[in-house]
DNA sequence: GTATAATGTTAGACTAATCAAACAAAATTA
DNA sequence: TAATTTTGTTTGATTAGTCTAACATTATAC
């Protein structure tokens, strides 16, 4: 059994390596807000437990075992978020913090029941895929809004940031998953975009925002 | 903010003092399965925090502040148990272990929502009262089955033990809250009882069991 | 009312998780 | 390539929570 602390390292390592498969001690340190020296010693410990492949001065990689265990934590996180939204009526901007805590509960029966009540969902309220019971995760290939050009149409399917602030911003613009947006203009100097969607709604979005919006081109 | 460990001491202290108001270091030690020396040092710490009135070699007492904070944890525990039974469909014998974990979540919004979804319940699935938001608890005056005499009738309203084993035992005898039982006989040598209830059901219950069953005399 | 048992406290050691400071390696810049 | 910056590691200290062993107090038994 891993401690709560170890679970947080695993989960963060998993999230950071979703892109490249490899993570620097420095990145992990920043992401966890824990000093590099501490991260190094924890990596040695997780290496002992065969969860991380660690060699001095080399990038960090999760082992298959590590990926599996991290996947199970992320499964619990995402099932929880879905439960909070669908069953308990929370907004998608409210659920991340609560799920951060609930994901550490040790009760397979609890999460099985959650899964069942939700009808075995495959994505969470932010469009992220829910790993299966063995911890395996299946990513859909989405396009970033920021990679679109004028005239492209995108059906929003996921956001890559679940912070309260960001989601509140989207709420205030009535941007939610499923909405079809059309790129009207792209400013070359800051890569901000003007998009239209819904009934005549038009908005200008910064690159920072566009980069976090994923969807399917239509 | 109290640590998870401190919360467990507070909660247990509260539960043990429900009877007499005072608790021995030894009792607390046994109940938590933590050595007395450790309990002593934690008592000093909680005393610093004004949660426990501690004097060497004297029985332990929670301060008003301590009672309040313990009450809030117990509120979260009992609301959770009710939620697990009423909303999620767990059996009353399954919920204690899960609630032990959920009670430590730091999210007033979560527990407010639970409370609301349940219609602001005043008792948990085992008949124990749910403290109010300020941590205050209101005990009903129930009679123990073990204090009844032949001919007495008792409507079961609470159990004083929520362990899986005990509740499974009650399930197997179809004994649940609300059932009206009648005392048919009391064995003087071991204080076991023969009771009747439901449609012609008759059972012999040990003193250990009778002592844990509370209800209203009718 | 002592002797013994039970209960409670103190002291010292250990582990997990953290940090700061010193040091080492790798990457970047000039 | 040498100097500098960034990244990573080691060492030693700290805190929370735990234990064991020795000691102290209170309660119980005879």
SSE topology:
2 copies of one chain form a homodimer.
Chain A: H1 4-20, H2 25-32, H3 36-48, E1 52-53, E2 61-62, H4 64-86, H5 95-102, H6 108-117, E3 143-144, E4 153-159, H7 164-172, E5 180-186, E6 193-197, E7 201-205, H8 207-210, E8 213-217
Antiparallel strand pairs in A: 1-2, 3-8, 4-5, 4-8, 5-6, 6-7
Helix pairs in contact in A: 1-2, 1-4, 2-3, 4-5, 4-6
Chain A binds a DNA duplex (30 and 30 nucleotides) through residues 3, 5, 24-26, 29, 34-42, 45, 56-57.
Describe this structure in words.
- Two copies of one chain form a homodimer.
- With 218 residues, chain A is of the alpha+beta class.
- The first copy, chain A, has helices spanning 4-20, 25-32, 36-48, 64-86, 95-102, 108-117, 164-172, 207-210; strands at 52-53, 61-62, 143-144, 153-159, 180-186, 193-197, 201-205, 213-217.
- In chain A, the strands form two sheets. Chain A has a six-stranded antiparallel β-sheet.
- In chain A, α1 packs across α2 and α2 packs across α3 (36-48).
- The termini of chain A are far apart.
- The model of chain A has no long low-confidence stretch (mean pLDDT 95).
- Chain A binds a DNA duplex (30 and 30 nucleotides) through residues 3, 5, 24-26, 29, 34-42, 45, 56-57.
């Amino acid at each position: 059994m891993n401690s709560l602390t170890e679970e947080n390292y695993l989960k963060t390592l998993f999230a950071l390596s979703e892109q490249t498969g490899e993570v620097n001690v420095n990145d992990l340190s920043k992401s966890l807000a824990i000093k590099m020296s501490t991260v190094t010693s924890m990596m040695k410990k997780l290496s002992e437990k065969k969860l991380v492949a660690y060699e001095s001065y080399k990038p960090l990689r999760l082992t298959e075992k590590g990926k599996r265990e991290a996947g199970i934590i992320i499964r619990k996180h995402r099932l929880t978020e879905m439960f909070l939204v669908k069953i308990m009526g929370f907004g998608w901007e409210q659920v991340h913090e609560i799920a951060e805590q609930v994901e550490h509960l040790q009760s397979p029966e609890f999460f099985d029941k959650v899964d069942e009540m939700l009808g075995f969902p495959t994505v969470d309220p932010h469009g992220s895929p829910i790993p299966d019971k063995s911890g395996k995760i299946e990513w859909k290939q989405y396009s970033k809004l920021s990679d679109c050009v004028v005239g492209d149409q995108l059906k929003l399917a996921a956001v890559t940031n679940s912070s309260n602030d960001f989601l509140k911003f989207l709420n205030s613009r009535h941007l939610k998953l499923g909405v079809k947006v059309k790129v009207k203009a792209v400013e070359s100097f800051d890569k901000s975009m003007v998009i239209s969607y819904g009934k005549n709604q038009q908005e200008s979005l910064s690159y920072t925002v566009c980069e976090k919006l994923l969807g399917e081109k239509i």
